[in-house]
Amino acid sequence: MTDCMIVVPTYNEARNIGRLIPRLLEYPRVRVLVIDDNSPDGTGDIVAAFALREPRVALQRRPGKLGLGSAYIAGFRRALAEGAEFIFAMDADFSHNPHYVPTLLAMAEVGADLVIGSRYIPGGGTSHWSFWRQLVSRGGNLYARMLLGLPVADVTGGFRCYRRRVLEALDLDRLRSHGYAFQIELLYRVYQAGYSIVETPIIFPDRQVGSSKMSRRIMAEALINVWRLRFELLAPPFGHRAVTPRGATRAYRGYTPEDRGYPEQLPR
What does the alpha-carbon distance between residue 147 and residue 14 come to, in Å, rounded to a whole number? Predict the structure, then answer.
């Protein structure tokens, strides 16, 4: 049974992707979909070679750098079309360690609609980050949480597992963010729609190989889009907007598999 698809957007990740794919394939339920934006370093060719010999690996090439948000939307659509029940978003640079995949999946299997690998709950953290990067990340999270009223500690965290029903219900065409603001917007839509959100702690190290894709333009987009989300008036409501009793929309922080009885490892 291969009911899980991990969507990995890439641009110039040739030195990472060849190590990441075998790690993910250690889990027999997992398929890997790489969305490559025409990386000049040959990332797409490395993935294509894997795909020729491993049916659980797929490559979707795009003509150029079209943005993180559109890469994930393309990947989510393909995952839904191919019948995936659990759909992961994951970076290629090992800042999202593959050994957390079973934990995120186990929490989704017992009912969480969205599971976030969180840096900012007890047990989570970062490694080898500069003071400036810590300040920007924590400040950005606080900024978005306060403006949008999100009961989530790590609103910008990109290591996530979505249940199929969540992505099916949302109107992905109406997501407007392109860079890292995409993670905030999609989380906000999930929360608006009344789905349950769970955070589980992860350690997030700095990338060892390659260069970060963060830029001032991406940071500015995030700052502006949070205000847009805060004050927008959508009619009709965005996607699936559940009418739920007060308190029915929940976000759990800090739960580990042991806390809630989740299995540490899944059957292979």
Answer: 38
DSSP string across 22-71: HHHTTSTTEEEEEEE---TTSHHHHHHHHHHH-TTEEEEE-SS---HHHH
Is the Cβ–Cβ distance between 50 and 23 less than 8 Å? no
Where do runs of H (alpha helix) occur along the chain?
A: 14-24, 43-53, 68-81, 101-109, 131-148, 164-169, 181-192, 216-231, 257-260
| Cα angle value 121/126/130 (rounded, 5°) | 130
The pLDDT, as a whole number, for residue 1 is: 73
pTM flag (> 0.90): no
Span 4-260: which CATH code?
A: 3.90.550.10
Q: pLDDT per residue over 173-199, tens digit each? A: 888 777 778 899 999 999 999 999 999
Treating both helix axes as pointing N-terminal to C-terminal, what angle do 181-192 and 216-231 enclose, rounded to 10 degrees? 20
